[in-house]
Each structure stands twice: as structure tokens, then as C-alpha cells.
Amino acid sequence: MSPFLSEFIGTFLLILLGNGVVANVVLHGTKGAQSGWIVITFGWAMAVFVAVFVAQDYSGAHINPAVTIGLALAGKFPWASVGPFIAAQLLGGALGATFVWLAYIHHYEKTADKGLKLATFCTNPQIRHSLANLFSEALGTFVLLFAVLFLTGPNLLAGDPSRPVGLGSLGALPVALVVFAIGLSLGGTTGYAINPARDLAPRLMHALLPISGKGSSHWDYAWIPVAGPLLGGALAAGAYLVIF
Q: How deeply is 111 buried, as exposed, middle or buried, from its count of CB atoms within 10 A (0-12, 13-18, 19+)?
């Protein structure tokens, strides 16, 4: 599988399962209706786990433009590949959001609250304050990328010295746990986009898809879950370089 396809599939799975759990919790008449924040944060963490273990062997499973740019700034990823990776992530996010809508289409029709419909696509702050919201997104992404930069692969050898001893697909679990921690601790202000592809591409699909009574896509806010994660990722890369 090519790195481009890997990032596309990984981000598709991330948004399908991540926005899918939001839809299950907030839309009217679902089996998981009103099951709460813990279900959403845990569901997003498991979405990250699935996306990372599918994509990690082929592209490194960035599935996030802030991670891609942050790794490039830290000297751990070639700048020539940044554009194709981000394009794949945005396309995968758009398709994932579309499939969530298709999966829950009748529940969208039964849900009157426009804000809840929007929440199944993208983020919106509990209290609108541009500087505070930007800080929240930057801080959450700083934690994400800073932790990712400290993740290491298996380095023990057994039997065949060409085959490292590791956890296999369970190696994706640390990243999922980092996202779980961010959601529980820092996600209550803005809904922790911490990923431009997670917010921008689905927001665009919210604007384009024929969703009954959907309301505004809030493009006046849309720059924050893009700029905040990019800023946080860049600061994490800078901090990592200063330390090492």
C-alpha cells in the first residue's frame, strides 16, 4: 500500500469511527443516545487505535496535518511528502464524514437540534472566545505531538535478529491512550479537534451534504481548529528540538 493510500484509509477510518461515536451519542433515537462524554472520548481513542494500526506500517500513520508538519519541523519527515500526505488526510476525512452521514441518515432526519447535527461533523466551543479556543486547540495538539515524538519502537531481538520483538498492532495503543487522555483532560472547552483534517474536511461535507435542517457550518470559527493544531504541533516540534 502506498503512503498516500495509507494516510487516506487511516484518516477515513479515524473520522468514520470518531464522528460515528459522536453521532451515536448525540443524534435522536440511536442505541447510544445520551451515553455521555466518556463514551465519546473512549470512542475517539479507539478510532485512533484502529486508524493507526491499519496505516502505521505503510505511512507511519500521521492521519493529521499537524503531526505531518510537526514531524517535518522536527526533522523526522521529508518536506517533499508533506503536501501529498495532507491531501490524502483531507480526502480521507471528507469520505469518513460522508459515510457517517449515510450510516445515520434517518437519525439526522429525526434530530431537531442543528448544533447536535454539526457536532457529528466538526467541533464548536462551549464558550466562544477566539484566543482561549485557539489556546485550547494548540495545547491539546502540543501534548499529542510531544508525546508522539517520545514514542519508540521495539528494540529487543529474539531468535531471528532481523525480527524485532514488539507488540504488533498493539503498538498503536499508546497513541490512542494519549488521545484518550487529551479528550478527558483538555477536551471540554472546544471538543479537542487537535487535527485540521478531523475538523476542516468534515465541516466542508456538512456544508455540502443535503442534511435536513442542518443550520450553519460556522465557518467563522473554522480557522481555529486548523490554526490551533498547526501552532501546537510546531511548538511541540520546537520544544523537542530544544531538549535534544
A: buried
Query: Contact at 8 Å (CB) between 23 and 96?
Result: no
Q: Which long-range contacts (CB under 8 A, 24 or more apart) does 55-58 make?
A: 55/6, 55/7, 55/9, 55/10, 56/171, 56/172, 58/1, 58/2, 58/3, 58/5, 58/6
pLDDT of amino acid 197: 97
Which pTM was predicted? 0.93
> How far apart, in Å, are the Cα atoms of 36 and each of 22, 39, 66, 190?
9, 6, 28, 16
Q: Would you give the end-to-end CA distance of the chain in angstroms? A: 33
Whether residue 109 has pLDDT greater than 90:
yes
Task: Grade residue 165 by pLDDT with cuts at 50, 70 and 90.
Answer: very low
CATH assignment at residue 93 = 1.20.1080.10
Three-state secondary structure call for residue 205: helix
> Structural domain of residue 221, as residue ranges?
3-243
CA geometry: angle at 142 spanning 138 and 14, to 5°?
85
Number of domains in the chain: 1
Residues in the chain: 244
Q: What is the DSSP letter of 26?
A: H
Per-residue pLDDT reduced to its tens digit, 78-105: 999 999 999 999 999 999 999 999 999 9
